[in-house]
């Protein structure tokens, strides 16, 4: 189903998500924020969700008289909880999305929308005209850091290490109680390297003009390919050794006294000056990717060493979950630190600016006093990057990514009864790594599904649409299980 608003604008047919799943609970939206980059828009809003919660009341049977006395009783109560919604889509669809939001806003008393990113100025007039909200711009770096702190604190296993040739490409990191200090390397058009020491204390300690824009610009000149994703696709198929001059090309092998292996790049694009032949687009794109990634990796390592920081996170549109960029950055960091520092990536790095802008607008509600949990059913998740597992998963154009977070009833603290929580190793089963256990549990969930659906319908005998809703649940739940089979990450 394509998403359409009541205006003349309609979404591209490649968008397959129904509208009620993209902008959920829009009628209850309270606040808005938007982060507009060079190619992607990230929209954030706050809503309230009403649902039923089972409350269990247990009884003290120390003075038990009758055998039939209940051990406990369950009562069902209506509860209203707060939810954060984050939606990411291509800038080409911004006008249609704004129309859709305008047509479906019902109960909002919002007068201002917080905005950040390079495109906030470009689209300011359009947003104000379509939504009737005043655009209030926020500093991009402040929003980025606020968003980063928020996901690191609230989402378990937010950070991961990428290992291209391992059984599981993603190795998720356990969230530490204290997330500070850390280094954030944001690779956009250029590179900003930011040292973050606390919630409100950060400093841009360095950077480079050689970043994602350099890869895109030089790549376009070399290959005549204008789209960033297509350029990365070319690089993933290339052999950089056809273009780069290696140590062994100069010395016939390794240079032992300096500790240089023969396969090490001695000169990026070094062969192109002397070889009398044409080079393929794929090989040139791969060489360029290595050159820029190695440069960024070495810079990041030097700053991490200078400031004695062991946690180094990478983000920005250059990364954006692309396996080829994550692999080259990981290789570079591993080489320059001799394995002492790991390159860390974030599952939701594309949302950091929008999250930060939203938090700036919601400061009076003090959202940081609460804990927030990811609502997996309403979130896109992290797709597997194995091409043989799902060849269509990189077809990004016309798709919407979503993240939803629910406010938890109580603030979570890290294992308060343990003397040293950081040394605790939980006895959990990682279904992303254990294929046998994964298949067993997915089979169990699938087998139980029909029984759950029957009980759901039976629990609401007076609701004529109960069967229809239960069937919709069955289909969505089964689809989720199939997705987890194909893309366990």
Automatic annotation (TrEMBL):
UniProt keyword annotations, A-Z: ATP-binding, Coenzyme A biosynthesis, Hydrolase, Manganese, Metal-binding, Nickel, Nucleotide-binding
Protein name: Pantothenate kinase 4 (inactive)
Keyword match Zinc: no
GO annotation (BP), single: coenzyme A biosynthetic process
Co-factor(s): Mn(2+)
InterPro entries, per the entry: ARMT-1-like_metal-bd_sf, At2g17340_3_helix_bundle, ATPase_NBD, Type_II_PanK
Domain of life from the UniProt record: Eukaryota
CDD domains associated with the record: ASKHA_NBD_PanK-II_Pank4
Signal peptide: none
Keyword ATP-binding recorded: yes
Molecular function GO terms recorded: ATP binding; hydrolase activity; metal ion binding; pantothenate kinase activity
Pfam families tied to this protein: Fumble
SUPFAM superfamilies: Actin-like ATPase domain, AF1104-like
Transmembrane segments: none
One Gene Ontology cellular component annotation held by this UniProt entry: nucleus
């Amino acid at each position: 189903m394509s998403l359409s608003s009541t205006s003349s604008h309609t979404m591209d047919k490649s968008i397959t998500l129904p509208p009620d799943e993209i902008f959920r609970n829009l009628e209850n939206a309270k606040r808005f924020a938007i982060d507009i980059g060079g190619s992607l828009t990230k929209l954030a809003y706050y809503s309230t969700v009403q649902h039923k919660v089972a409350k269990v009341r247990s009884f003290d049977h120390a003075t038990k008289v009758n055998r039939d006395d209940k051990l406990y009783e369950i009562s069902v109560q209506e509860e209203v909880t707060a939810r954060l919604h984050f939606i990411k889509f291509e800038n080409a669809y911004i006008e249609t999305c704004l129309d859709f939001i305008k047509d479906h806003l019902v109960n909002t008393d919002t007068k201002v929308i917080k905005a950040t990113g390079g495109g906030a100025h470009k689209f300011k007039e359009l947003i104000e005209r379509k939504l009737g909200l005043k655009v209030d711009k926020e500093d991009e770096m402040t929003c980025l850091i606020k968003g980063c702190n928020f996901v690191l604190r609230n989402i378990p296993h937010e950070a991961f290490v990428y290992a291209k040739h391992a059984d599981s490409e993603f190795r998720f990191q356990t969230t530490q109680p204290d997330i500070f200090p850390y280094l954030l390397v944001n690779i956009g058009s250029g590179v900003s390297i930011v040292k973050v020491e606390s919630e409100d204390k950060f400093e841009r300690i360095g950077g480079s003009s050689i970043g994602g824009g350099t890869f895109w610009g030089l790549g376009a000149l070399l290959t005549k390919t204008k789209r960033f994703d297509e350029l990365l696709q070319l690089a993933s198929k290339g052999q950089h050794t056809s273009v780069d001059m290696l140590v062994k090309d100069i010395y016939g092998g390794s240079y032992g006294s300096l500790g240089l292996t023969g396969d090490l790049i001695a000169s990026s694009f070094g062969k192109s000056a002397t070889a009398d032949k044409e080079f393929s687009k794929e090989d040139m794109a791969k060489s360029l990717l290595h050159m820029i990634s190695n440069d960024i990796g070495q810079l990041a390592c030097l700053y991490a060493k200078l400031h004695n920081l062991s946690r180094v996170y990478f983000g920005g549109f250059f990364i954006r979950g692309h396996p080829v960029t994550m692999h080259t950055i990981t290789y570079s960091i591993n080489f320059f630190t001799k394995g002492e520092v790991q390159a860390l990536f974030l599952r939701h790095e594309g949302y950091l600016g929008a999250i930060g802008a939203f938090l700036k607008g919601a400061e009076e509600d003090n959202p940081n006093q609460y804990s927030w949990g990811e609502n997996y059913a309403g979130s896109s998740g992290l797709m597997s990057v194995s091409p043989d597992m799902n060849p269509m998963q990189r077809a990004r154009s016309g798709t919407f990514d979503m993240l939803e977070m629910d406010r938890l009833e109580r603030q979570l603290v890290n294992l308060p009864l343990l003397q040293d929580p950081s040394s605790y190793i939980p006895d959990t089963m990682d279904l992303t790594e254990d294929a046998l256990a994964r298949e067993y549990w997915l089979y169990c969930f699938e087998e139980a599904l029909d029984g759950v659906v029957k009980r759901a319908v039976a629990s609401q005998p007076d609701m004529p649409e109960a069967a229809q809703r239960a069937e919709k649940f069955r289909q969505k739940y089964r689809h989720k299980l199939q997705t987890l089979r194909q893309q366990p990450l």
